[in-house]
C-alpha cells in the first residue's frame, strides 16, 4: 500500500510533457513563399518541435512545412482574372477553414496576399474567437481599399509590418503592430562582392562598353501577354535608332520564358533575338540590375529591388481596365512604383495603361542615355531609400514575435 502511494505520488510530481505547438501559415505567391521559408527555418532553429503546416509552395515545403494546398492554385491577378478562379478558391478556402477548426492550431500566420488573407482571417475569427492570428507583410491599406483596416482590426491579433510608416497606421487604429524590417534589405550582396560587369558580360555574350537595358516584364502569363508587344516595339524602335544598345530580358520562370518566346514569334520580332536581345534566368537578376544602365520594369516588388541597388528605371503597367478603374477610384496615394512611394516624389517615370506605349519607353530611354549626370543623380536618391527600411534580418524579429505569441498560454 505504502509503495503504491509512493508510486502515485511520484507520477503526480513527474513533469508533464507539453504538446508540440502548431502553426498554420497561408501564403499566395512566390515571394511570400520564399519569405515564409526563411522564417520557418529560423522558427525551427529556435523551436525544433514546432509543427508548421498550411498553404504554400516548394520553398516552404523544403523548409519543413506540411503543405495542405499549393500556393500555385492562387496564381491569378486582377479583378477579372480572379473571377475565373472563384470556384476553386472557395473550395480551397472551405477546406482550409475545416482543417483549422478541426486541428485548432496554436496560431495562424497569414502572409501578404490581402485579397484572400484578410477575408480568410475574418472567416477564421468567426469560428475560433481566441486563436491568435498574426499577419506578416501588410496589405497596402494606405494605397488602396483603406476600409480593409476595419476587418484587420476585428480579426487580426498582431501585424508584423515591413515598412516603418505602417506601424503607426495600425497602432492609431488600435491594432497591435511592429515593424520587423524589410526582407529585401538583406537580399542582395554588398556591391563590392557582386560579379564584375566584365565577367557578367562575358557570361552572357554582352559588350561591357555598350549600353545595357535590363527588362523585367513580369512573372505571370497575363503580365507577359499585356506587356510584351509594347516592350518589343520599343526594342525594335531603339535598335534601328541606336544599334549599340543591348537589351536583356529577365526570365522569372520557365512559364514566363515560354510565354515571352511565343510573343516574340507571334509579333514577328524573332530577328531581335539574334542581334540585340538576350534573355537570362532569374538567378542573374541582381547582376543584371547592377550592370544595366537603365531598367524597364513592371510595377511591383522589382521596382523596390531596383531602388535598393540604386538603378534608374522606367516603371510600366498595362492590364485589365476594370481592375485599373477599381484601383484609381479606391487609391489614396499618388504613386504606384515603390521608389516614388517611399520618396513621395516623381523620382522615376510611371507609364501606366494608356501611357504604357513604345514611344514613351523610347523617349525616356533616349533622354537618360544622353544625360549620364541625370542618371547619376537619380541613382544617388534611390540608394538613400534603403535607410528607410531598417537594417538586419527580418526573420529574427518576426520569429521572436511569433514564438512569443505561441508560448503566451503555456
List keywords for this structure.
410 residues; alpha/beta; Rossmann fold; 2 domains; seven-stranded parallel β-sheet; six-stranded parallel β-sheet; 19 helices; 13 strands; 15% strand
Summarize the entry for a quick read.
The protein has 410 residues and is α/β, with parallel strands linked by helices. Helix content is 50%, strand content 15%. It has helices at residues 2-13, 30-46, 58-63, 78-84, 86-103, 114-127, 148-155, 164-171, 197-204, 221-241, 254-266, 270-273, 285-291, 301-309, 321-330, 338-343, 358-370, 372-384, 394-406; strands at residues 22-26, 51-56, 66-70, 107-111, 133-136, 158-161, 177-179, 212-216, 246-251, 277-281, 294-298, 313-317, 350-352.
Amino acid at each position: 500500500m505504502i509503495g503504491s502511494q509512493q508510486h502515485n505520488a511520484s507520477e503526480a510530481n513527474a513533469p508533464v510533457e507539453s504538446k508540440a505547438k502548431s502553426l498554420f501559415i497561408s501564403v499566395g505567391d512566390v515571394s511570400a513563399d520564399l519569405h515564409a521559408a526563411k522564417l520557418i527555418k529560423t522558427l525551427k532553429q529556435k523551436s525544433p518541435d514546432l509543427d508548421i503546416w498550411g498553404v504554400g509552395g516548394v520553398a516552404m515545403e523544403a523548409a519543413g512545412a506540411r503543405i495542405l494546398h499549393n500556393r500555385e492554385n492562387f496564381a491569378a491577378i486582377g479583378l477579372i482574372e480572379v473571377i475565373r478562379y472563384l470556384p476553386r478558391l472557395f473550395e480551397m478556402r472551405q477546406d482550409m477553414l475545416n482543417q483549422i477548426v478541426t486541428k485548432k492550431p496554436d496560431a495562424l500566420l497569414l502572409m501578404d496576399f490581402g485579397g484572400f488573407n484578410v477575408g480568410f482571417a475574418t472567416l477564421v475569427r468567426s469560428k475560433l474567437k481566441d486563436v491568435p492570428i498574426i499577419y506578416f507583410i501588410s496589405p497596402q491599406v494606405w494605397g488602396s481599399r483603406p476600409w480593409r483596416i476595419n476587418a484587420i482590426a476585428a480579426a487580426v491579433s498582431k501585424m508584423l509590418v515591413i515598412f516603418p510608416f505602417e506601424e503607426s497606421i495600425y497602432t492609431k487604429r488600435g491594432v497591435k503592430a511592429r515593424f520587423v524590417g524589410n526582407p529585401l534589405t538583406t537580399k542582395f550582396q554588398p556591391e563590392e562582392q557582386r560579379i564584375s560587369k566584365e565577367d557578367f558580360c562575358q557570361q552572357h555574350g554582352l559588350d561591357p562598353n555598350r549600353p545595357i537595358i535590363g527588362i523585367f516584364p513580369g512573372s505571370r502569363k497575363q503580365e507577359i501577354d499585356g506587356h510584351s508587344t509594347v516592350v518589343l516595339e520599343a526594342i525594335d524602335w531603339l535598335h534601328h535608332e541606336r544599334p549599340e544598345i543591348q537589351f536583356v530580358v529577365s526570365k522569372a520562370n520557365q512559364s514566363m520564358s515560354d510565354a515571352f518566346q511565343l510573343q516574340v514569334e507571334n509579333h514577328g520580332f524573332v530577328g531581335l533575338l539574334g542581334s540585340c536581345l538576350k534573355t537570362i534566368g532569374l538567378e542573374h537578376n541582381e547582376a543584371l540590375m547592377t550592370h544595366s544602365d537603365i531598367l524597364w520594369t513592371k510595377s511591383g516588388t522589382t521596382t523596390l529591388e531596383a531602388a535598393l541597388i540604386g538603378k534608374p528605371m522606367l516603371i510600366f503597367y498595362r492590364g485589365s481596365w476594370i481592375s485599373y478603374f477599381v484601383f484609381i477610384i479606391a487609391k489614396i496615394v499618388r504613386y504606384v512604383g515603390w521608389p516614388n512611394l517611399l520618396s513621395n516624389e516623381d523620382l522615376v517615370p510611371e507609364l501606366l495603361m494608356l501611357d504604357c506605349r513604345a514611344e514613351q519607353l523610347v523617349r525616356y530611354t533616349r533622354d537618360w542615355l544622353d544625360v549620364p549626370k541625370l542618371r547619376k543623380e537619380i541613382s544617388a536618391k534611390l540608394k538613400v531609400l534603403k535607410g528607410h527600411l531598417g537594417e538586419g534580418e527580418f526573420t529574427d524579429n518576426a520569429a521572436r514575435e511569433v514564438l512569443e505569441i505561441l508560448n503566451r498560454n503555456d
